[in-house]
């Protein structure tokens, strides 16, 4: 059968420091009509660059240096046409549309969304302005934008991130393309929005027989949506198979290692994540032999001596790029399985309460006008009630804007709550002044989300880690300081010899280790981890999760683990707190929450998270969610979730449900239960 | 949008009011006695007293300010001590000439500056960019009066192609008018072209890297549409700030250029008035310049809101 799209031996180079670096190295792939394929890989694996190269969207200093692109209906290699040629422009946008990662910046802020869609239609369907407008409005209707007639003249900044991405989908589909490329299209969005959008893309694609290429780092997404998957590593495809086979019977050591490294929502509690050690090779110094060699558990001396392996068909339709034979792999796999995997002993949570938060409320005033008159409040968090025992991990989950970070900042006493108690080790710190707070500061520390911007670029690693040692007078002299810093480096698995470097000389994972060392330096009792791994690649995430678990059992730390990735939260937490629109909606022990989910919001949240296993995905019940998270200034009266809840009754519209016990150490704020 | 304009206009009125206080205080700030400045050192006691009284210097300062302000609002800005004419009359004669030069130079410099800026951004690193950037950087550094003297030396004195001074309105004598206007306009516009080029180039380079430009390219739009519809409209937002400042500095530049080319505009009037301590004229010039600057700023801000919808919805 003739393929709809075929890439052959694509090669793209970037010129850095006068050196040509291959970002895409001999990548071939194909796509059949109506098919949905996934391309997965970590950052820098070349997945996006391959797509951009195919459409000749690579700008200086990058250059497509080789390969062929064929699309059905055109005999010639598309790369032979110039990037701005008539033919190429017809393919780009006309036959292949693309949706990008950042919905907030991918639409032009000074043009109306209507114009931007209309323009695309006029360019490719050759219709007049009126006709194009009609179709644009139809497209907006298709992606469920309310009042499309009026919204046509709106500007992008008048829409939320999820809405903008829907507009991007409408625009991409408006030119009736044969192929839609979604390049990390939902990565920046919340899980429920992500699920809504991907389902929408799939439904539209199936209805219009459009083929879809999903480019992502998230194995769960491809497991749920893709029919066939390419796995990329360091600029090359290392494995290709249809989805079920890939997950059930992966062949390449990298794919196998990935599946062992990612936490899944359906994991049993005692599952051990096995991180992939090391880092992907720097493309500039990529070896001649297999690029995964350094990190591969299956490696043999032969792999080093041969040149880079090419894709080989192992069974029909299943390709992998590995030198090892089936028998060799089986042998190695047994060896690996036999290896003892040490798991940090689960830390024992005592009965003692470390942190007790009662009825905490934080509002932010809204000012307006020249004299800055207060006109209202952003009700960031309200009625927050929970406790954390010593040595346990409490996971806090919720979508962006639900108040997770505000809560963390109140506990850190960066903000002063308007009301409520924050009892830390028996002392209520909610109303403390900066001076009163000082002795407590060293006992509560924080690990931040972004290891790139949360470290001072001009400070050396040593002074970043050692700063609070001096600040809290925890060391007596220079010598002791040096010793303690070295010790901290070793605790988080960094070589103390690196301590004179500045942050940009470290990789993302190493930087997060620095952040952890900094948090540990003052010997805290409680560490607030605010999305500590969400900026890291999957293979690195497992390293950091394991490190955090190990440190907890070694040092008896208490964690508040804030994240939007429910699988990670489930893996690390002993109890979980779910927030929605500034309120706690459910708290329960980890297993209890997942096996006996009570709150309708938690239920939709859990079902929105894709599991990296297509067989599990097939049988899972999907709880659809409608609408979007309302803004905090416009919070609905009554239960904050009532306007998106299927089970909402009259009472939910009037009264706010209180967080009450539902047995089994399970608390829920919903009128369906116990009230 | 309407509320925005009203708000900005209100702010403008407040600023003008504050400037008027400052302007009025000029009389007391300038070293030396205003009466002596007006009449020279050798005046009789009676003469001094009469003028002292005429200038109302014997009244309290608040009183003087408000009576001055009341006069100024009605167009009574006093008698010029230098020309022995009403200040209003002098300003009325001079202002159209300066506005003619400033606005023409402004109109010449914007499209040229934007064009050069776009060219050099699109061909970044190529010879065209190198040439444009080099010339723009050099001209932006050159003082205006130096350029004025240089072109005057070359084109008027050495080559003799153009007259070295004077001003004629176009409807009076078109040929002379153009010949006389070429050099001053060139001097006034040159700095503007250079600044607008540099600003357009840098903001264009910034915008070209943005995600929405990539989106536009991925839609298969032509290079021309990507640059002129999607990129340029965004790139112009910072350029507008420069435009407002440029028109202000054109007024300042007119002082040098009008003095060098002996053009009877506001600029040269201002310089002369300061030299001869012609206080009513100085006051009028400061006030008029402030007013014009404020109006330009207001227009700039409105233009902002027109080009950038984000400003509108804030």
Structural features, described:
The complex is a heterodimer of chains A (675) and B (314). With 675 residues, chain A is α/β, with parallel strands linked by helices. Chain A has 23 helices and 23 strands. In chain A, strand 12 (353-368) and strand 13 (373-389) form a beta hairpin. In chain A, helix 3 runs parallel beside helix 6 (161-174), helix 4 (129-142) packs across helix 6 (161-174) and helix 6 (161-174) runs parallel beside helix 7. Chain A is globular, with a radius of gyration of 26 Å. The mean pLDDT of chain A is 88. Chain B is 79% helix and 0% strand. Chain B has helices at 2-29, 34-39, 45-54, 61-73, 87-122, 127-141, 144-158, 174-208, 211-218, 223-260, 266-275, 279-307, 309-312. The mean pLDDT of chain B is 83.
What is the averaged pLDDT score of chain A? 88
- SS field, number of helical segments of chain A: 23
Rounded to the nearest angstrom, the distance between the terminal CA atoms of chain B is: 10 Å
Give the mean pLDDT of chain B: 83
Main beta-sheet annotation of chain A? 8 strands, mixed
- Percentage of helical residues of chain A? 25-40%
Taking pLDDT < 50 over at least 5 consecutive residues as the criterion, the unreliable ranges of chain A are: none
Q: Brief overview, please?
A:
With 675 residues, chain A is an alpha/beta fold.
């Amino acid at each position: 059968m003739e393929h709809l799209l075929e890439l052959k031996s694509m090669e793209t180079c970037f010129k850095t420091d006068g050196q040509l670096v291959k970002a895409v190295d001999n990548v071939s792939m194909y796509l059949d009509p109506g098919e949905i394929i996934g391309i997965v890989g970590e950052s820098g694996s070349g997945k996006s660059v391959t797509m951009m190269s195919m459409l000749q969207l690579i700008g200086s200093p990058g250059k497509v240096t080789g390969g062929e692109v064929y699309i059905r209906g055109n005999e010639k290699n598309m790369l032979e046409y110039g990037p701005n040629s008539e033919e190429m422009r017809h393919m780009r946008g006309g036959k292949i549309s693309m949706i990008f990662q950042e919905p907030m910046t991918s639409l032009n802020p000074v043009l109306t969304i209507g114009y931007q869609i209309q323009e695309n239609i006029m360019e490719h369907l050759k219709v007049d302005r009126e006709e194009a407008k009609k179709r644009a409005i139809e497209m907006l209707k298709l992606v469920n934008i309310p009042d499309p007639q009026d919204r046509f003249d709106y500007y992008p900044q008048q829409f939320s991130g999820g809405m903008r991405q829907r507009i991007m989908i409408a625009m991409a589909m408006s030119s009736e393309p044969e192929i839609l490329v979604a390049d990390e299209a939902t990565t920046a969005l919340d899980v429920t929005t992500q699920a809504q959008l991907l389902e929408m893309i799939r439904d539209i694609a199936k209805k219009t027989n459009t083929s879809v290429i999903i480019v992502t780092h998230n194995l769960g997404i491809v497991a749920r949506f893709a029919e066939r998957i390419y796995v990329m590593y360091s600029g090359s495809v290392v494995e290709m198979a249809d989805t079920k086979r890939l997950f059930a019977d992966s062949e390449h050591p990298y794919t196998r290692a990935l599946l062992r490294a990612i936490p899944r929502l359906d994991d049993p509690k005692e599952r051990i994540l096995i991180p992939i050690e090391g880092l992907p090779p720097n493309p500039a110094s990529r070896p001649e032999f297999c690029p995964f060699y350094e990190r591969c558990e299956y490696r043999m001396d032969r792999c080093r001596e041969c040149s880079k392996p090419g894709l080989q068909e192992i069974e029909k339709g299943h390709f992998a790029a590995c030198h090892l034979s089936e028998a060799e792999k089986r042998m190695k796999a047994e060896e690996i399985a036999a290896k003892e995997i040490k798991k940090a002993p689960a830390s024992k949570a005592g009965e003692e309460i470390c942190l007790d938060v009662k009825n905490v409320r934080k509002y932010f005033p809204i000012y307006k006008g020249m004299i800055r008159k207060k006109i209202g409040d952003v009700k960031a968090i309200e009625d927050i009630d929970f406790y954390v025992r010593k040595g346990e991990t409490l996971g806090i989950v919720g979508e962006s804007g639900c108040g997770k970070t505000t809560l963390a900042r109140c506990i850190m006493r960066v903000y002063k709550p308007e009301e409520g108690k924050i009892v830390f080790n028996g002392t209520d710190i909610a109303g403390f002044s900066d001076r009163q707070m000082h002795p407590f500061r060293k006992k509560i520390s924080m690990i931040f989300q972004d290891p790139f911007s949360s470290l001072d670029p001009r400070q050396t690693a040593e002074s970043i880690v050692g700063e609070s040692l001096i600040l809290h007078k925890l060391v007596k002299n220079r010598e002791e300081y040096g010793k303690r810093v070295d010790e901290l480096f070793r605790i988080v698995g960094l070589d103390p010899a690196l301590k004179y470097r500045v942050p940009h000389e470290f990789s993302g994972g190493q930087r997060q280790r620095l952040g952890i060392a900094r948090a540990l330096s003052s010997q805290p009792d409680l560490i607030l981890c605010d999305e500590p791994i969400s900026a890291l690649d999957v293979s690195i995430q497992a390293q950091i999760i394991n490190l955090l678990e190990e440190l907890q059992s070694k040092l008896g730390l208490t964690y508040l683990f804030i994240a939007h990735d429910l699988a990670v939260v489930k893996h690390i937490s002993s109890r979980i707190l779910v927030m929605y629109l500034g309120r706690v909606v459910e708290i329960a022990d980890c297993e209890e929450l997942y096996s006996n989910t009570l709150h309708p919001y938690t239920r939709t949240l859990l079902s929105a998270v894709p599991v990296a296993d297509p067989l599990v995905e097939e049988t899972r019940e999907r709880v659809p969610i409608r609408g979007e998270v309302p803004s905090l200034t416009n919070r609905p009266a009554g239960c904050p979730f009532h306007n998106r809840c299927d089970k909402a009754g009259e009472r939910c519209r009037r009264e706010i449900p209180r967080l009450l016990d539902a047995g089994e150490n399970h608390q829920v704020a919903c009128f369906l239960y116990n009230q | 949008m309407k509320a925005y304009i009203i708000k900005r206009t209100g702010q403008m009125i407040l600023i003008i009011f504050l400037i008027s206080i400052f302007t009025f205080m000029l009389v007391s700030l300038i070293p030396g006695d205003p009466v002596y400045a007006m009449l020279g050192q050798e005046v009789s006691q009676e003469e001094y007293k009469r003028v002292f009284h005429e200038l109302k210097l014997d009244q309290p300062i608040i009183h003087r300010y408000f009576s001055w302000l009341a006069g100024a609002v009605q167009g009574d800005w006093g008698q010029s001590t230098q020309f022995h004419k009403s200040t209003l009359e002098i300003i009325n004669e001079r202002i159209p000439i300066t506005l003619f030069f400033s606005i023409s130079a402004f109109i010449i410099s914007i499209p040229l500056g934007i064009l050069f800026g776009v060219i050099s951004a699109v061909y970044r690193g190529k010879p065209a960019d190198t040439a444009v950037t080099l010339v723009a950087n050099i001209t932006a550094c050159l003082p205006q009066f130096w350029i004025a003297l240089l072109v005057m030396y070359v084109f008027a004195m050495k080559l003799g192609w153009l007259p070295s001074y004077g001003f004629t309105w176009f409807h009076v004598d078109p040929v002379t008018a153009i010949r006389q206007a070429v050099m001053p306009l060139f001097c006034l516009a040159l700095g503007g072209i250079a600044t607008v080029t540099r600003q357009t180039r840098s903001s264009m380079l910034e915008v070209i890297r943005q995600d929405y430009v990539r989106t536009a390219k991925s839609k298969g739009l032509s290079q021309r549409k990507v640059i002129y519809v999607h990129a340029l409209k965004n790139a112009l937002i910072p350029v507008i700030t420069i435009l407002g400042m440029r028109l202000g500095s054109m007024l300042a530049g007119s002082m040098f250029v009008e003095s060098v080319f002996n053009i009877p505009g506001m600029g040269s009037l201002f310089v002369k008035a300061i030299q001869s301590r012609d206080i009513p004229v100085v006051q009028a010039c400061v006030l008029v310049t402030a007013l014009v600057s404020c109006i330009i700023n207001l227009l700039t801000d409105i233009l902002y809101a027109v080009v950038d919808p984000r400003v509108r919805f804030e």
